């Protein structure tokens, strides 16, 4: 059995997963929250983005299960000798990719789907030095004559990959159809929801997105069975493998930093708005001072102090992965403790309004303690601001990590991240011929992650903030168009009996 390794960020990520599951259970028990999230579920771009975010999350969680493989016993070792584990730490994602082309490095650069290195080398041919492009040692090794066989082999592997992705998509659609048919107790209603889109939840759009995602992943998997589908970098590592490993870093930076930002923002924001006076002045002075310091300089100073501590206490880390992981964890804490001022301002302004309402004044008149008023009356009424800020900050922090790694103060150089890929590719763009595939891969993966997070965040903001709620054309059609909506909202005629409102009449 391998030895399970618990890294700081692994524990934090899985605790956040458990917290998300607990929140889902709470939403199921709360009619108001269930109705609010139902508005998010009716948003087509948000649900399509949720499919993409789930795919990224699965890859990140697979890369968050670390272990040290068990080494075979040494020759002549005693039967009762203690087990010996490998010094290198692997993840479940590494275990799934072991033995594939993605984990077989080359000497240096190679183009996507290439059979030769990108740079010429001096080779001995018939005892004569010749400058030519050498064959790759980890990809396209099954080809005897790459110039003649590569095109047909690439098309064959691409076809098998697309077929496999389509099979997975069909299986997923069949499972969804069975679930809808069981819930609706009608196969015809499930078919209408999937094929015609006649459902509040955009199942058809989600299935189309899932199919496209499966086809994309299948194509990459089919091509990566014999080639470096997205090429290799300067030291020969597969670019697709680096992008998959960078997903976890982006998720950790985006989620853990946001979680670290919440405690000071919530405590200081609610306290400043509720107590006012000297407490408000002190908290305002604190976050005004923090925001007056340039953010990059503040993060750089904290990161350098953190690096000095890690370098002076190298004996605390048994592996290089543990050292790099602690640096990532502390970087998230630094970003969180230096970036809470914006949310604190929002919560302070909202609390200043809420403290003057009747139910808060009544609680104070009955002698309810300040702590109970802030936790039971004020915090639930500002929770929508917290949730909106969490989902909006995620994408910004993913981009911020790229900037910090580009400046050299981000994650450890031995850890894969989109910022490290961009930083490594900044000089490659000026080469002739240009090496473009590393930067393109980081750009595409970051674009997909950040765009999906932004679209989902927009839907959450619209659902939880009534002032920005939008009227959807599809919703107008279900309500009978604008005329039907106006007719429902128009005042009753003089002398007419008021009509009881229905749940379906609400916008």
UniProtKB/TrEMBL annotation:
It is found in: Cell membrane. Residues 247-457 form the ABC transmembrane type-1 domain. The keyword DNA-binding does not apply. GO terms for cellular component: plasma membrane. InterPro entries: BP-dependent_transpt_permease (IPR050366), MetI-like (IPR000515), MetI-like_sf (IPR035906). One of its GO terms (biological process) is protein transport. Keywords: Cell membrane, Membrane, Peptide transport, Protein transport, Transmembrane, Transmembrane helix, Transport. It is a multi-pass membrane protein. The chain crosses the membrane at residues 6-25, 46-67, 158-180, 201-230, 250-273, 285-306, 326-347, 382-409, 434-457. It comes from the Bacteria. Belongs to the binding-protein-dependent transport system permease family. PANTHER family: OLIGOPEPTIDE TRANSPORT SYSTEM PERMEASE PROTEIN AMID, OLIGOPEPTIDE TRANSPORT SYSTEM PERMEASE PROTEIN APPC. This is ABC transmembrane type-1 domain-containing protein. It comes from Achromobacter kerstersii.
């Amino acid at each position: 059995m391998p030895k399970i390794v618990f890294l700081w960020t692994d524990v934090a990520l899985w605790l956040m997963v458990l917290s998300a599951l607990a929140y889902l259970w709470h939403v199921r028990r709360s009619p108001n929250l269930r109705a609010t999230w139902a508005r998010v579920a009716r948003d087509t771009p948000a649900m399509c983005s949720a499919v993409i975010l789930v795919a990224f999350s699965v890859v990140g969680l697979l890369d968050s299960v670390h272990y040290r493989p068990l080494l075979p016993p040494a020759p002549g070792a005693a039967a009762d000798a203690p087990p010996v584990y490998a010094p290198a730490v692997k993840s479940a994602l590494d275990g799934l990719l072991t033995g594939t082309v993605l984990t077989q490095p080359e000497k240096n650069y190679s183009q996507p789907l290439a059979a030769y290195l990108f740079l010429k080398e001096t080779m001995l041919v018939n005892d004569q030095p010749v400058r030519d492009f050498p064959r790759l040692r980890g990809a396209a090794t099954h080809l005897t004559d790459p110039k003649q066989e590569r095109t047909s082999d690439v098309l064959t592997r691409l076809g098998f990959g697309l077929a496999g992705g389509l099979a997975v998509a069909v299986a997923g659609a069949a499972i969804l159809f069975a679930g809808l048919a069981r819930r609706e107790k009608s196969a015809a209603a499930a078919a209408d929801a999937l094929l015609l889109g006649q459902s509040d939840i955009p199942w058809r759009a989600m299935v189309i997105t899932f199919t496209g995602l499966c086809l994309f992943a299948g194509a990459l998997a089919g091509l990566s069975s014999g080639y470096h589908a997205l090429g290799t970098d300067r030291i020969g590592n597969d670019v697709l493998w680096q992008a998959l490993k960078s997903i976890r870093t982006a998720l950790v930076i985006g989620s853990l930093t946001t979680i670290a930002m919440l405690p000071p923002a919530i405590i200081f924001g609610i306290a400043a708005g509720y107590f006012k006076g000297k407490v408000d002045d002190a908290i305002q002075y604190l976050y005004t001072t923090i925001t007056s310091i340039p953010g990059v300089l503040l993060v750089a100073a904290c990161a350098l102090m953190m690096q000095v501590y890690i370098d002076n206490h190298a004996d605390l880390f048994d592996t290089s992965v543990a050292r790099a992981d602690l640096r990532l964890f502390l970087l998230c804490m630094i970003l969180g403790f230096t970036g809470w001022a914006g949310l604190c301002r929002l919560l302070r302004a909202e609390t200043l309004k809420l403290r003057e309402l009747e139910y808060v004044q009544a609680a104070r008149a009955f002698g309810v303690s300040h702590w109970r008023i802030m936790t039971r009356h004020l915090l639930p009424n500002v929770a929508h601001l917290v949730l909106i800020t969490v989902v909006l900050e995620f994408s910004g922090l993913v981009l911020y990590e790229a900037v910090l790694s580009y400046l050299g103060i981000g994650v450890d150089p031995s850890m894969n991240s989109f910022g490290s890929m961009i930083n490594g590719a900044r000089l490659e763009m000026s080469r002739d011929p240009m090496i473009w595939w590393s930067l393109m891969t980081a750009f595409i993966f970051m674009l997909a992650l950040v765009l999906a997070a932004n679209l989902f965040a927009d839907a959450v903001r619209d659902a939880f903030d009534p002032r920005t709620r939008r009227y959807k054309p599809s919703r107008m059609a279900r309500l009978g168009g604008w005329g039907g909506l106006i007719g429902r909202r128009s005042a009753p005629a003089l002398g007419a009996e008021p009509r009881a409102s229905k749940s379906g009449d609400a916008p």
